């Protein structure tokens, strides 16, 4: 499929009633490749009495987008997906459900971009936090799954059957650190600190005591210290050992957006010019990463509701330490728009199509 780009693709979105699924619907309805071939939207309308419901009754903000007012949210059914000739599915569903459906989708010859963590981690010890069932079949599929970071793995994504879309925090820290870690200039023995803050939508639509308005509003709190589930993605994608990075997430009292502040020490003193060139060169061909010119650093208000990850840094006067800041919208570059970048690559279309 990737070798002969098609003009369009038959796609379906599972989990369209959720936060990430809603963003997928918005992007895909507005995507030029789907103007005459709109996506199929899957939900659990049984909670609405079993009948299909209209997409815009669920998400009134989508009304007026191409094909949106005629779109229905239908119950999940493999026969229906086959009848419709679906070629690629987005799974914006919980990890366990994604794990089951991605295997079934591949068996039905449907390629998958999975937004959950079901296939992100190769190392069983890092995956254990998700308590997913491992079998010989899932082990084989895990080997095949491609970590869906277009900036790092574009070539593999193009031909993949199963793409594991990265975690939101993980995307920001991995993109912020990759240029300096891959250049081998970081003193790993000194340890990297990644201090990240996220808006509340990162936790999904179901409120919990920790994300309830009364807890989150007017508040800022650290959580999952020494145990956040995204650390495995950092270890694997940055080839780090657990004692070489300390990642601490915080919950911000805003709806969406992530800002990660990353502290590194260098083995040799750097100059602002050399470091700027390193970041600029690394992301020269990355249409959805904006490298800021030091001393400018990214801010959440510059990325919210965009598909960009913004990256910037400042260097200490002695050139031995840098603070790197990476910023993105958790529902977009941290989830839905990154998933669409992956679909674009899988279909042989420009990575940023429909996103800028
Ligand atoms: N929120 C974020 O910033 C990010 C989320 N992700 C991942 O993306 C996926 C979706 O996240 P998000 O949109 O935030 O989550 P939400 O909780 O907002 O939405 C979850 C969606 O999954 C559906 N769903 C829940 N359980 C089942 C089930 N057993 N069978 C079928 N469908 C089910 C829900 O349907 P219903 O409405 O009927 O309950 C809903 O459509 C998750 O795997 C999450 O980890 C990844 C990166 C960032
Ligand atoms: C604010 C908040 O709660 N954020 C979520 C991360 C969301 C994400 O990226 O999701 P998955 O890795 O689960 O797909 C968390 O800390 O668990």
Automatic annotation (TrEMBL):
<dbReference type="InterPro" id="IPR050085">
    <property type="entry name" value="AGPR"/>
</dbReference>
<dbReference type="InterPro" id="IPR000706">
    <property type="entry name" value="AGPR_type-1"/>
</dbReference>
<keyword id="KW-0963">Cytoplasm</keyword>
<comment type="pathway">
    <text>Amino-acid biosynthesis; L-arginine biosynthesis; N(2)-acetyl-L-ornithine from L-glutamate: step 3/4.</text>
</comment>
<comment type="function">
    <text>Catalyzes the NADPH-dependent reduction of N-acetyl-5-glutamyl phosphate to yield N-acetyl-L-glutamate 5-semialdehyde.</text>
</comment>
<dbReference type="InterPro" id="IPR036291">
    <property type="entry name" value="NAD(P)-bd_dom_sf"/>
</dbReference>
<dbReference type="InterPro" id="IPR000534">
    <property type="entry name" value="Semialdehyde_DH_NAD-bd"/>
</dbReference>
<comment type="similarity">
    <text>Belongs to the NAGSA dehydrogenase family. Type 1 subfamily.</text>
</comment>
<keyword id="KW-0521">NADP</keyword>
<keyword id="KW-0055">Arginine biosynthesis</keyword>
<dbReference type="InterPro" id="IPR023013">
    <property type="entry name" value="AGPR_AS"/>
</dbReference>
<dbReference type="GO" id="GO:0003942">
    <property type="term" value="F:N-acetyl-gamma-glutamyl-phosphate reductase activity"/>
</dbReference>
<feature type="active site">
    <location>
        <position position="168"/>
    </location>
</feature>
<feature type="domain" description="Semialdehyde dehydrogenase NAD-binding">
    <location>
        <begin position="10"/>
        <end position="160"/>
    </location>
</feature>
<dbReference type="Pfam" id="PF01118">
    <property type="entry name" value="Semialdhyde_dh"/>
</dbReference>
<protein>
    <recommendedName>
        <fullName>N-acetyl-gamma-glutamyl-phosphate reductase</fullName>
        <ecNumber>1.2.1.38</ecNumber>
    </recommendedName>
</protein>
<dbReference type="InterPro" id="IPR058924">
    <property type="entry name" value="AGPR_dimerisation_dom"/>
</dbReference>
<keyword id="KW-0028">Amino-acid biosynthesis</keyword>
<keyword id="KW-0560">Oxidoreductase</keyword>
<dbReference type="Pfam" id="PF22698">
    <property type="entry name" value="Semialdhyde_dhC_1"/>
</dbReference>
């Amino acid at each position: 499929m990737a070798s002969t780009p098609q003009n369009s693709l038959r796609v379906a979105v599972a989990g369209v009633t959720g936060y990430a699924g809603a963003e997928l619907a918005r992007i895909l309805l507005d995507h030029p490749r789907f103007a005459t071939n709109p996506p199929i939207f899957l939900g659990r309308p049984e909670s609405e009495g079993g009948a299909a419901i209209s997409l815009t009754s669920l998400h009134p903000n989508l009304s007026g987008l191409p094909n949106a007012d005629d779109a229905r949210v239908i119950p999940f059914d493999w026969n229906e997906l086959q009848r419709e000739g679906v070629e690629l599915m987005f799974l914006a569903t919980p990890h366990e459900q994604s794990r089951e459906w991605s295997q079934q989708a591949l068996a039905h010859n449907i390629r998958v971009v999975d937004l959950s963590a079901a296939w992100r981690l190769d190392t069983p010890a890092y995956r254990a936090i998700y308590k997913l069932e491992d079998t010989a079949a899932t082990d084989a599929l895990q080997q095949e799954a491609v970590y869906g970071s277009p900036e790092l793995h574009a070539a593999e994504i193009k031909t993949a059957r199963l793409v594991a879309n990265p975690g939101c925090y993980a995307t920001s820290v991995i993109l912020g650190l990759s240029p300096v870690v891959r250049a081998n200039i970081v003193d790993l023995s000194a340890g990297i600190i990644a201090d990240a803050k996220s808006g509340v939508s990162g936790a999904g639509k179901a409120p919990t005591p920790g994300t309830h308005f009364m807890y989150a509003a007017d508040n800022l709190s650290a959580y999952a210290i020494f145990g956040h589930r995204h650390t495995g993605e950092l270890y694997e994608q940055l080839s780090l050992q657990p004692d070489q990075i300390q990642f601490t997430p915080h919950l911000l009292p805003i709806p969406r957006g992530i800002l990660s502040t990353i502290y590194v020490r260098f083995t040799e003193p750097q100059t602002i010019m050399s470091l700027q060139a390193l970041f600029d060169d690394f992301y020269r061909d990355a249409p959805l990463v904006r490298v800021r010119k030091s001393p400018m650093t990214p801010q959440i208000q510059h990325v919210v509701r965009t598909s960009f990850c913004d990256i910037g840094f400042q260097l200490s006067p002695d050139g031995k330490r840098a603070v790197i800041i990476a910023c993105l919208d958790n529902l977009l570059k941290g989830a839905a728009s990154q998933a669409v970048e992956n679909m674009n690559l899988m279909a042989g279309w420009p990575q940023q199509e429909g996103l800028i």
